[in-house]
Amino acid sequence: MEYDEKITNPMRHYCNPSAVLADEELTKNERIVALKNWRDDINLKLVATEENMGPGSADITLVSEIDNLLHFLEH
Q: Are 68 and 23 in contact (CB under 8 A)?
């Protein structure tokens, strides 16, 4: 189901993390889970690339944006 996929794999459904926050179909908790899933996917990618090269600044920026959005939602 696409709805569940939006939460488990948000990178495929949203152009940026802020779009998750703007999605009115998701509850607050679903937004938090989706953002955490996105952050986890990026962190796994960063760990995998550390062996060959430094992390991309775009990925680090995305993690920072996601952390800021999570802080907003959780407080």
A: no
What residue ranges in 1-75 does DSSP mark as E strands?
none
The domain spans of the chain are 2-74
pLDDT tens-digit profile, the chain (75 residues): 577 999 999 999 999 999 999 999 999 999 999 999 999 999 888 877 666 665 567 788 889 999 999 999 998
Question: Are residues 45 and 75 in contact, defined by beta-carbon separation less than 8 angstroms?
Answer: no
CB neighbour class for 66 (10 Å; exposed up to 12, middle 13-18, buried from 19): buried
pTM, two decimals, is 0.82
Q: Are 45 and 38 in contact (CB under 8 A)?
A: no
User: In angstroms, how far apart are the furthest CA atoms of the chain?
Assistant: 40
Record the tokens describing residue 56, joined without a space.
């991309």
